[in-house]
Structure formats: structure tokens, C-alpha cells
């Protein structure tokens, strides 16, 4: 009879749970959904794991540190200390993985050790001097007390909640416990209170429901502290993060410079150089013809003359592409007006600057507008455009607008993405607003540096 | 002489075509990249109409690096009778070494600027078409400069070094004589002195002589 009930119950719960799971996701507010969501269970798992891990790390750190400190009078203490620190760093790597898997918290590894030379002594020195090592030790020491507390709180809330919530089922399955009906809530020699009437059972289940609903938020609060610990003590220091950022920026700058040089070399090779070779060839032919066929020679010299003028034009364009003279001489207003004049679409230029920015910033602003105007000429099918430049506190703002077809490509590898990367390298920002059908507005922000 | 031109700059391709046609040579085809060149030559060979010489730019699409040299090396291995003259904006002794690997028969490597000297340039194309060699003076200078046999080279008189350079470019005795404004006999005397000092056995054919000199310089 009991078995039947049990099977029936199991079946009911399975089907019911499935129905609830699907239905709840659609109907129920986050507060009611939280106890059955994967996130809550993962955080619970994290808190459970913290206790054994915290104790192990604490024991390791305390043992090794005291051993190392005790042995410091002899030389052997230093490598022992270094081993303690290195162990804590390795443990930190595990912890970052655990946080990534269970808390969805992605923390980068701290700055690597940079021993000055090869050899054990340099490595030991680097381990001991690295601030990150000591932060890892601090984490190893702090984790245990915190994990004991959070373990107790989490387990209490989680288990009491679910047990109380399902109390009616327990009561139904096992009406008698220790010869009495229901669980003993309170008891001394005189009074004993058993949860055995429907009202008490109902109150117990309701309390269980409240505790179950509260448990995920308690867990979230507990793991927030874990997140702070992991992020603050196991990640790269702020200085190191900035160094990584700058290294990446510098990489972009170097890449950009190399790409520019390649472009210039290509332009020279395909343009002016080829034209000059053709010119030399024409003149060579003319020289050969000078005596036998002066008329043909004159024609060739004429052609060569035309070639040399085109070659000069190409060299001038190329030089302007490297750095426009007018930008240096007259500033952004004149240079951008010249750019706009060469655009195939009529473009209105408005530059509102009381002073000139630094030459580097001016150059970047110029090339940004130049590329955006080229895009307008090539892709936009616009009939008019505008360029606005102004200063807003410590930022130089550029805005290029056209009334073309919109839908500008900002995916990786596109010209705009390249532009955004180059601006990023100088702490600038590029914002593209280009809905299908237009209009397109591209806004760039550069840091203002006084020229 | 039947010529195929591979050059991605239309301007230069047409210039070269005009220059060669003007001198009474037959430009069979003009192409813009290495793949088209190999395809054209393969087609012509299949019709038993292999040209005498290919004039190819080093840098062509798609990568704009050295596809001209690679195509030239490939064509020379497939068609040993085909002369290949490679033109380059810059002189890279490495490219010359790759081209000359194996044989110096019907191979040339010149700076593009050389087309300005129309007569010399066309002479070089004809020389390569006939199985001779045409190496740019700058390539030869690099080869001479890089050779590990500096001590032996130092034993040559200035005039002999000049003759050695012109010889390495692939010129015949009479061409060398014309260039240096001396008699053919004088050049022959210099040449046999050079071969004696370098310890090479004198050989008759111009291109075999070049090969001997280049092998010597490169070893």
C-alpha cells in the first residue's frame, strides 16, 4: 500500500514538476522562479564546495607560512615562503575556474611573475615581491571563516526551507515518528508540541515556502561576498589591468602604423613608381626615334609630358594622404573644408573651436573625417552631408551626417570597425547610427589635448 | 621573337607591348597575374606554340609579393626551353638565386628601370629568348659583395672585376668589349685571366660561362 503511494507520488511529482517548470517560466515572477533556477543551485553548490576548499587552503597557507616564517632565521625559510605563495597562486587559479563555472564570474589571471633573470633565485624573489601573491595568501586565509559562515547559513536556509515546504508529504508518508504523530517542535519535561494537526502542518508548509523563496536571495547575498573576494584578491591589480589595456592599445597603434606604411608603399609601387617607369620607357623610345622618325618622337615626348604631370599629381595626393600640409598650416577648419570640397557629395563643414588641439589629435580627427567622407562618396548614395566639430569639456567631438541609404557596415573587419579600433587606441569612441534607409550619423569623441 | 608579358600595371604592360612590337617582336599575350600567366603558357604549349620568352613582373595580384618569381621558377621547371625574364621594382639577390637554381639557361632578372634604355632592354629580352642570361648589374654587385671568396676577388685587377661583372650579367665577349670600349681580343685576355685566377676551367658558351661564374660567387 505504501509502495503504491510512493510510486504514485513520485510519478505525480515528476509530471507536476515538469508542468510547473515550463509554466512557471512563462507565468511566474522572478521571485517565485528563483528557487528552481539553475543559478540558485549553482550558487548553492559553490557555497557547499567553499567549506572543504576553504579549510584545505587555510591549513595549507597557515602551515606553510608559519613553517617559512619560523625557518626565516635559516636560509631555507625563504624558499618555503615562496612555495607557500606559489601554492596560493595555484589555488587562486582553481578558484577563478570555480567562480567562472558556478558564479559566471570571469576574472582574468593576475599579472604574471616577471623574474629579472633566469634561475631559481630570481623566481623566488619575484614570487615574494609580487603583490598578487600576497593577495592570494590573504584570500586563502579569509576564505575559511567566511565559508564556514556561508555554509551554515546556506545549508540551514536551503534544507529547512525544502523540508518544511514538503512537510505535509512527510507527514502523510510517515504519520508516526518515534511513536508520536508528527515532528516534535518543542519539548521539555512538561510540554511537548507536535506538529500534527492540519493547521500546524499548513503553517509549517507556508513557513517553508517563505524560507525556500528567501533562500536564493540569501544565497545571492552570500555569494556576492565571494564575488568581491575573488574579484578583489585573485584578479589583476588595477595597475596591471591598465597595463594590459595599454599594451593592447599600443599593439593597435603599431599595427595601424605598419598598415599605413604598407599602404603608402603599395600606393607608391602601383602609382607613381609605375608611372615613372612608363615615362622612362616612353622617353627611351623617343630618344631612339629622334633621328629616324622625329615626328613619332615628338608625339612620344608629348605623351611623356602628360605622364609626368599625372605622376606629380599622384605624388601630391600620396603626400596629402600621409600628412596634409594645410592641416599643419591652417588647422582643422581649412583642412576639413578642403576634404569636403573633394567629396562627391556637397558637404557643409562647421568647425567651432576656440583653440587648436594637439597635432596628433588634429591628425586623427582629420583622418577620421577623411575616411567617413570617403564612405559617403563611395557607399552612401547621399545627396548632401555635414561635418561638425566642436569641443565639449575635455573631449573633441566630430559628427559626420549624410542623408544617404544608411545601413553602414560596422561588423568586424569593416572600415568603420578599423576606425573605431584606431580611435580606441587613443581613448576615443566612435558611435555609428545608421538605420536601413538612412540617415547615417557617425559621432567620434577624442580626448582634447591642447596644441 | 614571340613574347608573353605578365604585368599587373596596365600602363606598363601596354608600354612593354608597344616597345617590343615597335622593335618587330610579336607579343602573343599580355596578362595581369601569375595564375593567368601559367594558364596562358600551358595553353600555348598544348597547341605547340610555346613563346620564346616570358617577361614577368615579380609583384602581382593577389598577394603582391613574389608570385612572379614563383611562377617563373615553375615555368622554367616545366618548359626548359622557355626563356624567362623577371622584372622587379627592387633588386633582391635572393630572387635571382632562386631563378638561377639549376641552370642559367634562358633566364633574366632586371630592375624595371632598365626599360628606359630601350635598346639594352630589348637586347636583354632577345638574349634570354635565345637561351642566354641577363642579370641586372645591381644583382651582380650584390652577388660580388656577398660572395665569401672576397680574398680571391681582391686578387683581380679593377678592369678584370669590371669584366667579371659584365660577364655575370650575361653579356657576350663582344658586348663586353663594346661596353668597355676595348677590342674583343683584350676582353678575351681578361676573361682567360679571370678564369685562371678563380681556378675555373674556361668554357665557350656564354651562358655556361655565366653559370660557372655565378656558381663560383654563390658557393
UniProtKB/TrEMBL annotation, chain A:
Residues 262-327 form the Signal transduction histidine kinase subgroup 3 dimerisation and phosphoacceptor domain. It comes from the Bacteria. CDD domains: HATPase_UhpB-NarQ-NarX-like (cd16917). InterPro entries: HATPase_C_sf (IPR036890), Put_sensor_dom (IPR025828), Sensor_HK_TwoCompSys (IPR050482), Sig_transdc_His_kin_sub3_dim/P (IPR011712). This is histidine kinase. The chain crosses the membrane at residues 44-65, 71-92, 137-163, 169-187, 199-219. Residues 46-234 form the Putative sensor domain. The keyword Membrane applies. The keyword Repeat does not apply. It catalyses: ATP + protein L-histidine = ADP + protein N-phospho-L-histidine. Keywords: ATP-binding, Kinase, Membrane, Nucleotide-binding, Phosphoprotein, Transferase, Transmembrane, Transmembrane helix, Two-component regulatory system. One of its GO terms (cellular component) is membrane. GO terms for molecular function: ATP binding; phosphorelay sensor kinase activity; protein dimerization activity.
Automatic annotation (TrEMBL), chain B:
Keywords: DNA-binding, Phosphoprotein, Transcription, Transcription regulation. It holds the Pfam family GerE. It comes from the Bacteria. Residues 149-219 form the HTH luxR-type domain. Residues 2-127 form the Response regulatory domain. The modification 4-aspartylphosphate is found at residue 57. It comes from Streptomyces alfalfae. InterPro entries: CheY-like_superfamily (IPR011006), NreC/VraR/RcsB-like_REC (IPR058245), Sig_transdc_resp-reg_C-effctor (IPR016032), Sig_transdc_resp-reg_receiver (IPR001789), Tscrpt_reg_LuxR_C (IPR000792), WalR-like (IPR039420). PANTHER family: TRANSCRIPTIONAL REGULATORY PROTEIN NARL-RELATED, TWO-COMPONENT RESPONSE REGULATOR. GO terms for biological process: phosphorelay signal transduction system; regulation of DNA-templated transcription. CDD domains: LuxR_C_like, REC_NarL-like. GO terms for molecular function: DNA binding. This is DNA-binding response regulator.
Amino acid at each position: 500500500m505504501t509502495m503504491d503511494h510512493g510510486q504514485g507520488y513520485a510519478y505525480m511529482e515528476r509530471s507536476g514538476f515538469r508542468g510547473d517548470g515550463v509554466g512557471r517560466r512563462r507565468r511566474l515572477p522572478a521571485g517565485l522562479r528563483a528557487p528552481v533556477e539553475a543559478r540558485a543551485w549553482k550558487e548553492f553548490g559553490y557555497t557547499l564546495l567553499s567549506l572543504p576548499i576553504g579549510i584545505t587552503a587555510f591549513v595549507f597557507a597557515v602551515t606553510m607560512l608559519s613553517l617559512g616564517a619560523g625557518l626565516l632565521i635559516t636560509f631555507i625559510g625563504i624558499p618555503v615562503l615562496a612555495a607557500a605563495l606559489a601554492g596560493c597562486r595555484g589555488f587562486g587559479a582553481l578558484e577563478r575556474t570555480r567562480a567562472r563555472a558556478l558564479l559566471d564570474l570571469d576574472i582574468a589571471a593576475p599579472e604574471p611573475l616577471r623574474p629579472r633573470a633566469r634561475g631559481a633565485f630570481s623566481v623566488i624573489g619575484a614570487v615574494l615581491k609580487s603583490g598578487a601573491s600576497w593577495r592570494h595568501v590573504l584570500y586563502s586565509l579569509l576564505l575559511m571563516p567566511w565559508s564556514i559562515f556561508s555554509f551554515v547559513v546556506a545549508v540551514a536556509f536551503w534544507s529547512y526551507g525544502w523540508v518544511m515546504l514538503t512537510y505535509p508529504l512527510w507527514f502523510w508518508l510517515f504519520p508516526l515518528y518515534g511513536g508520536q504523530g508528527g515532528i516534535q517542535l518543542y519539548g521539555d519535561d512538561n510540554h511537548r508540541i507536535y506538529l500534527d494537526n492540519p493547521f500546524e502542518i499548513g503553517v509549517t508548509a507556508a513557513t517553508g515556502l517563505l524560507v525556500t523563496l528567501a533562500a536564493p536571495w540569501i544565497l545571492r547575498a552570500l555569494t556576492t561576498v565571494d564575488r568581491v573576494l575573488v574579484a578583489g584578491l585573485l584578479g589583476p591589480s588595477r595597475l596591471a589591468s591598465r597595463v594590459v589595456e595599454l599594451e593592447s592599445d599600443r599593439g593597435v597603434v603599431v599595427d595601424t602604423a605598419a598598415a599605413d606604411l604598407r599602404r603608402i608603399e603599395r600606393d607608391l609601387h602601383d602609382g607613381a613608381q609605375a608611372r615613372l617607369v612608363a615615362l622612362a620607357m616612353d622617353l627611351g623610345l623617343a630618344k631612339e626615334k629622334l633621328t629616324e622618325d622625329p615626328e613619332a618622337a615628338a608625339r612620344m615626348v608629348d605623351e611623356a609630358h602628360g605622364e609626368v604631370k599625372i605622376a606629380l599629381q599622384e605624388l601630391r595626393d600620396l603626400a596629402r594622404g600621409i600628412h596634409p600640409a594645410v592641416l599643419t598650416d591652417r588647422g582643422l577648419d581649412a583642412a576639413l573644408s578642403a576634404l569636403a570640397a573633394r567629396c562627391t557629395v556637397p558637404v557643409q563643414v562647421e568647425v567651432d573651436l576656440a583653440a587648436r588641439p594637439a597635432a596628433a589629435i588634429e591628425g586623427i580627427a582629420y583622418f577620421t573625417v577623411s575616411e567617413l567622407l570617403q564612405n559617403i562618396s563611395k557607399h552612401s548614395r547621399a545627396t548632401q552631408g555635414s561635418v561638425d566639430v566642436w569641443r565639449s569639456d575635455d573631449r573633441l567631438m566630430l559628427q559626420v551626417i549624410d542623408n544617404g541609404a544608411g545601413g553602414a557596415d560596422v561588423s568586424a573587419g569593416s572600415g568603420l570597425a578599423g576606425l573605431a579600433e584606431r580611435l580606441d587606441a587613443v581613448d576615443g569612441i566612435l558611435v555609428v547610427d545608421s538605420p536601413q534607409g538612412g540617415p547615417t550619423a557617425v559621432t567620434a569623441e577624442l580626448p582634447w589635448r591642447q596644441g | 621573337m614571340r613574347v608573353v608579358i605578365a604585368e599587373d600595371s596596365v600602363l606598363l604592360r601596354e608600354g612593354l607591348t608597344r616597345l617590343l612590337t615597335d622593335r618587330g617582336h610579336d607579343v602573343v599575350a599580355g596578362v595581369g597575374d601569375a595564375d593567368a600567366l601559367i594558364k596562358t603558357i600551358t595553353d600555348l604549349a598544348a597547341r605547340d606554340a610555346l613563346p620564346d620568352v616570358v617577361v614577368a613582373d615579380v609583384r602581382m595580384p593577389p598577394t603582391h609579393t613574389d608570385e612572379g618569381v614563383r611562377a617563373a621558377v615553375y615555368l622554367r621547371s616545366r618548359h626548359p626551353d622557355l626563356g624567362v625574364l623577371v622584372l622587379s621594382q627592387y633588386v633582391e639577390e635572393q630572387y635571382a638565386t632562386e631563378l638561377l637554381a639549376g641552370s642559367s639557361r634562358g633566364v633574366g632578372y632586371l630592375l624595371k628601370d632598365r626599360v628606359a634604355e630601350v635598346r639594352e632592354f630589348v637586347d636583354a629580352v632577345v638574349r634570354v629568348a635565345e637561351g642566354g642570361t641577363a642579370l641586372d648589374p645591381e644583382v651582380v654587385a650584390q652577388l660580388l659583395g656577398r660572395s665569401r671568396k672576397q680574398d680571391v676577388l681582391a686578387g683581380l685587377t679593377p678592369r678584370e672585376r669590371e669584366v667579371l661583372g659584365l660577364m655575370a650579367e650575361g653579356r657576350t665577349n663582344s658586348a663586353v668589349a663594346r661596353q668597355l670600349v676595348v677590342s674583343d681580343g683584350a676582353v678575351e685576355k681578361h676573361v682567360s685571366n679571370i678564369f685562371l685566377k678563380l681556378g675555373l676551367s674556361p668554357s665557350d658558351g656564354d651562358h655556361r660561362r655565366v653559370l660557372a661564374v655565378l656558381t663560383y660567387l654563390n658557393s
